[in-house]
Specification:
It contains 15 helices and 9 strands. By secondary structure, it is α/β, with parallel strands linked by helices. The protein folds into 2 domains: about 100 residues, Rossmann fold (3-Layer(aba) Sandwich), CATH 3.40.50.720; about 190 residues, no CATH class. The strands form 3 sheets. Strands 3-2-1-4-5 form a 5-stranded parallel β-sheet, sandwiched between helices. The protein has a two-stranded antiparallel ribbon with strand order 6-7.
Length: about 350
C-alpha cells in the first residue's frame, strides 16, 4: 500500500470515487451566460427553446431538456437534446451550473418534482413557469396549451383608471392635432386617388371593436372599386387588387390616416389590436382560443402585433398575431404605447411595407 492510501485510512477518510458523467456531451459556457434548463419536452418546451435560440444575443444558453422517460435521454429535440430525467434535476442543475429552470410540463400534478424545485428556489436559482418565460422572451403569449387559470391568476390585465383616462386624453389630443395638421396632405392624396382610379376617395368598412361592437372604419381607398365583387377575401402583401396609388399609400401607412376620425369618436385608439371584419371574427373565434380577449380594449390604428409580425393574410397569421395582441392586452401601459408609436413612426418613415 502506498503512503497516500495509508494516510487516507489512518485519518478515516473514504477513498475518492470518480462518478461517470450523466451525459457524454461536454458543454462549456461563457462566464456571463444565463444557463436555462427546460423541464418538459412538449410543444411549449420546444417553442421556448426555439425562441431562446433565435435571439442569438449570446447571453442565454439552453442546457437541454429533462423528460420523465429515461429511454429518450440523448434524443435531440431542437438543438439541445434530452439530457436526463426529472429525478436527476438537482444533479444536472449542479453539473451545468444552471441559473434558470423553466417548467414546461403539460400535467404538473403527477410528475412535478416539487421538493427539488423548492430546494433550488431556496438556493437562489430561478424557477419560472414556461409560459411566463416564453412571454418575456418572445413578446407574445402562447395560447395553444395555456389553461384559463394561468390567465385568471396572472398579474396582468390591469385597467388602472388613471392610465385609461390618460390614454384616452392623448388619443383625442393627437387626433385633433393630426386632423388639422394633415389637411393639406389629405387634399393631395384625394386628388391622386381620384386621378388613379374611379371610385370614392374614402373607403368605409364594418369592423369589430371594443366589447365586440361593430363600427364603420375609415380609410383612404387603396384598392379598385370592384375589389370584393366576388365576396370578402383576406388581403395580402402583394394583393393584385391594390391600385397604383394604393400600393404607394399602403407602403407608407397613409391609408390609415382617416382613422383619426374613429379615434375622435371613441371607436378606436391610437394603439391597440388591429380591428378585424365581422365575417372573419366569427370564423377566427371558433378556431383560435381566447380570441375575444382582444376585444376588451379599443382597437388601434397601430399595435404591438404590427410592430412585431409580418403582414397577416391568413388564419395561421391571425393565430400568431393574436398571441402578440394578448401580450399587449395583458401588459397595456402608456410606456408600451409609446414604444409602439415610436416603432410605427420609424416604419412609416422608412416605408417598410404595408401591414
Amino acid at each position: 500500500m502506498n503512503s497516500s492510501s495509508k494516510s487516507e485510512q489512518e485519518i478515516g477518510l473514504e477513498p475518492v470515487v470518480t462518478q461517470p458523467p450523466l451525459v457524454s456531451v461536454s458543454v462549456s459556457f461563457p462566464k456571463f451566460t444565463r444557463r436555462v434548463l427546460i423541464l418538459g419536452v412538449g410543444p411549449l418546451a420546444r417553442d421556448l427553446c426555439q425562441t431562446l435560440l433565435s435571439k442569438r444575443t449570446g447571453f442565454t444558453e439552453v442546457v437541454g431538456f429533462l423528460d420523465k422517460d429515461a429511454s429518450r435521454v440523448g434524443e435531440r429535440l431542437v438543438n439541445p437534446s434530452i439530457i436526463g430525467t426529472y429525478d436527476q434535476l438537482f444533479e444536472i442543475a449542479e453539473r451545468y451550473q444552471v441559473h434558470t429552470v423553466a417548467v414546461c410540463l403539460e400535467d404538473r400534478r403527477a410528475v412535478l418534482p416539487v421538493q427539488t424545485l423548492l430546494d433550488m428556489k431556496a438556493m437562489g436559482r430561478d424557477v419560472v413557469d414556461g409560459h411566463y418565460l416564453y412571454e418575456e422572451e418572445s413578446g407574445r403569449i402562447s395560447i395553444d396549451h395555456l389553461k384559463p387559470s394561468a390567465l385568471i391568476f396572472s398579474t396582468g390585465f390591469r385597467r388602472r383608471l388613471v392610465t385609461m383616462l390618460l390614454k384616452r386624453c392623448l388619443d383625442v389630443l393627437v387626433a385633433i392635432v393630426g386632423i388639422v395638421a394633415l389637411v393639406p396632405l389629405v387634399l393631395l392624396l384625394s386628388i391622386f386617388i381620384k386621378l388613379d382610379s374611379s371610385g370614392p376617395v374614402f373607403y368605409r368598412q364594418m369592423r369589430v371593436g371594443l366589447r365586440g361592437r361593430p363600427y364603420m372604419i375609415w380609410k383612404f381607398r387603396s384598392m379598385r372599386q370592384d375589389a370584393e365583387q366576388s365576396g370578402a377575401r383576406w388581403a395580402t402583401s402583394e394583393d393584385p387588387r391594390v391600385s397604383r396609388v394604393g400600393r404607394w399609400i399602403r407602403k407608407w401607412r397613409l391609408d390609415e390616416l382617416p382613422q383619426l376620425i374613429n379615434v375622435m369618436r371613441g371607436e378606436m385608439s391610437l394603439v391597440g389590436p388591429r380591428p378585424e371584419r365581422p365575417v372573419f371574427v366569427q370564423e377566427l373565434r371558433n378556431t383560435i382560443p381566447y380570441y375575444d380577449l382582444r376585444h376588451t380594449v379599443r382597437p388601434g390604428i397601430t399595435g404591438w402585433a404590427q410592430t412585431r409580425f409580418r403582414y397577416g393574410a391568413s388564419k395561421e397569421d391571425s393565430h400568431v398575431k393574436l398571441q402578440y395582441d394578448l401580450f399587449y392586452v395583458k401588459n397595456l401601459s402608456l410606456a408600451l404605447d409609446l414604444r409602439i408609436v415610436i416603432h410605427t413612426v420609424k416604419v412609416m418613415l422608412m416605408g417598410e411595407g404595408a401591414r
